[in-house]
Amino acid sequence: MLNPEQEKYFDYTSVKLTDTEYDAYKDLVYDVAGISLKEKKKPLLTGRLSKRLRHHKIQNYTDYLKLVKNDSHELQMMIDLVSTNETSFFREEKHFHFLEDYVKNLDPRRGPFRIWSAACSSGMEAYTTAMVMAESGVKFPWEIFGTDISTRILEKAQKALYPLDAANRIPQNYLKKYCMKGVRDMSGYMLMDKKLRSSATFRYMNLNDQAWPDVGLFDVIFLRNVMIYFDKPTKQRLIGNIVSRLKSDGYLFVGHSENLLGIPTTLKSVQPSIYRKI
Asked: Between helices 61-70 and 19-33, what is the axis angle to 10°?
């Protein structure tokens, strides 16, 4: 470990991540999160983890790997940094048009309608869904359940506070009705409507875990832009678990660049990236 004087001049961004070290990190990330890191992700991993080397005053990635393997908090921190949390409101909006048309034709006397945002990131997908459900005018109760592997990003979802520049895809009527523009210290931000916030709950969940917690059954599950990070065996296990949490005749939405080709399942394709459980 460096002494305080040496630490002042040490450039952590210059620490090299060897191929052997990178392979060890890839194995760990795969085992923990099911994410398959490609060779081109090496610079990204180096850039993000150099901050943790600086924080702990560690001079090489081998020593940091030892720390991660023996410290569950630091392991979670590493997974948070490795996870990609790209999201936006009304991303792949055709899914939300489909959802709105679907719920409007359901029996108004039915029980609670449950929607799972299975990799919710900062919550924009969950709150988009909540806006669509609120605007649909359905009379039955509904709820949104969001999960993610990143505890850091889940905190943002729970706060429901977003920069105004994230609102560019939100229709104006939704924006006026469901998004409160901040003033003074909150200038430049917007807060989701209280009713929407009360309809959404968020919790940590690792979709790669062998045993999942009891989250109940859902009418709709969003699993979008998740499988692109997994290899085929991981995808097969994941889809099997997802289907077991989907009600009969329920719908699964995946990303527009994803499909279930080659994965045995009881799901039927009804539109590109939309599947129904039969």
From this structure: 20
